## 1
Amino acid sequence: MISAENNSTETLLVFETQWTRNIKFVLFVALAPAALICSCALVYFLIADQNLRQTLHYHALLGLLIASLVTNLIELPRIIHYLRIGIVTPQTDLNCDI
């Protein structure tokens, strides 16, 4: 943030250490598989049940679940990889956009 009075910038303090990254890594590795299994099961049951498929308000829920599942399938491995090694690889603009 730039101050109008003295034209200086404030520094952003990053409070992530190797210890906090390790804690996040353990939590992600422990909870991510269960979250993915639950998401897959919910999508399956919404698709498999004919009564739920024909009810219109479940279509929005199914769309949100599928979008969340795809996001988790793409993003979770990348987060876990970053927490394990501490840097983003590969360091490209496309990788950051994803």
Note: The chain has one domain: 9-85.
## 2
Amino acid sequence: MIFQAGLLAHGGFTTLGANTFSMAIAGSIVSYLIYKGLAKKNRTLAIFLAAAVGDLATYVVTSFQLALAYPSADGGVMASFIRFGMVFAVTQVPLAIIEGLLTNVIMNILDKYNTKEVEA
């Protein structure tokens, strides 16, 4: 988070709390709950959905945070939330799908070559 704030200018240090909540807390919790809920039924699907939906959850929370900070004059927070969400959806939906697929590939490689560590 500090790397993103300081070197990549993702909002700077003034938004570190908001970024920490959306990326490190909300996305992680959603991913964890999805994986735990589905892993015993279908591990591949659980990994895919945990990665993809966790990524999208981050941007839903970010859209809400931005909507609170910049409410629309003609529609309020909800109109801003929808607008920010639509802007993020253009890039984040394809990236979330790719992230879900790539996470499955990586987990399959880890399972194949590091079975003991993955089970632990």
Note: The helical segments are 2-7, 16-38, 43-69, 76-113, 115-119.
